[in-house]
Amino acid sequence: MVMAIHSNREKLTNGKNPDFHKRLFWDWNFSKIDWEKHYLAVIDRIIERGDKDDWKEMVQFYGKPKVIKALKSEIKYLPDYIIDDVCGYFDLSKEALACYAHKQSRKGHWI
Predict the structure, then answer these.
(1) Cα separation of 59 and 62, whole Å?
(2) Cβ(67)–Cβ(59) under 8 Å?
(3) Are residues 43 and 82 in contact, defined by beta-carbon separation less than 8 angstroms?
(4) The whole model's pTM is what?
(5) In which element (H, E) is residue 57 found?
(6) Among the listed residues 56, 37, 36, the one whose alpha carbon sits nearest the alpha carbon of residue 46
(7) Along the 111 residues of the chain, how does pLDDT read in single tens digits?
(8) What sign has the CA pseudo-torsion 53, 15, 72, 28?
(9) How many angstroms separate the CA atoms of 97 and 77, rounded?
(10) Rounded distance, CA 32 to CA 76, Å?
(11) Whose CA is closest to 77, among 110, 107, 50, 104?
């Protein structure tokens, strides 16, 4: 009897796409994602909802400079606990992140 071992990730057949968990894109048509065109939304989704293996795959697919550029100038919101993780993983300061600068510029409620 031959037993196949299946990964909890579904590999994409053409090898030109990243190997992310489909569960991260539950609300997208996974087979039709244009990974390059929608890189910002994908990076944002992976940063917020992915695990360290997803982060590693993201960096491998997009390249560290593109991910860091997105974090520094394009992603305007991340939860505080993710900001800490991002800073540690990418060796960045909070002040270097667009989401942190955006958060600092927003006035809190006076109530």
Answers:
(1) 5
(2) yes
(3) no
(4) 0.79
(5) helix 52-62
(6) 56
(7) 333 333 433 433 345 889 998 999 999 999 999 999 999 999 999 999 999 999 999 999 999 999 999 999 999 999 999 999 999 999 999 999 999 887 776 665 555
(8) negative
(9) 9
(10) 26
(11) 104
Measured distance between the N- and C-terminal CA atoms of the chain, rounded to whole angstroms:
68
Q: Per residue, what are the HEC states of the chain?
A: CCCCCCCCCCCCCCCCCCCCCHHHHCCCCHHHCCCCCCHHHHHHHHHHHCCHHHHHHHHHHHCHHHHHHHHHHCCCCCCHHHHHHHHHHHCCCHHHCHHHHHHHHCCCCCC
| Domain extent listing, the chain | 35-105
Residues contacting residue 78 through CB under 8 Å, at least 6 positions apart:
47, 48, 86, 97, 99
